[in-house]
Amino acid sequence: MAFFNIAGARIEGARFLDLFAGSGVFSFEAISRGAASAVAIEQDRKAVETIVRLAGEWHVPVTGIAADVFAGIPRLAAKVADGALFDVVYADPPYSFGRYDELLDTIDRLAPLADGALVAIEHQRRSDPFTIECKRLKAARRAEYGEIWITLFETA
Fold first, then answer.
1. Which domain holds residue 56?
2. What is the pTM of this model?
3. What is the sign of the dihedral through the CA atoms of 6, 112, 50 and 99?
4. For a designed S-S bond to 40, which of 2, 27, 74, 95 qualifies (C-beta 3.0 to 4.6 A apart)?
């Protein structure tokens, strides 16, 4: 969970978006570190059912959306209460993922992001999968953790 050391105080009070959420561990960790709410998008329906069940049992503000990330991001505006914007986004695509530019473009164009939002996308070590220019997102830095690198973007 090196990402949370990078994000630090930005998590406190944030609206957190967890893409390729899997078990929802990043969403729950964000809440445990003081995030105001989290939305987890995961295509595996059973995983989302578990996320929603655990959020209810633990009485935490985590919402699950069962969808492919590219279909789920456009649906966020309807799912997010009062037009709230996301302050922090974490994307952990599968190891063999090959659609990084499409992911970055979709987040840039369609995700409801707050001014100064932090967007972090995991990718394989020694790869630079981002080749497009974005309108809102600007590359901020890259963090390297063994086989995992995290490229960080911020809204301009």
1. 9-155
2. 0.93
3. negative
4. 27
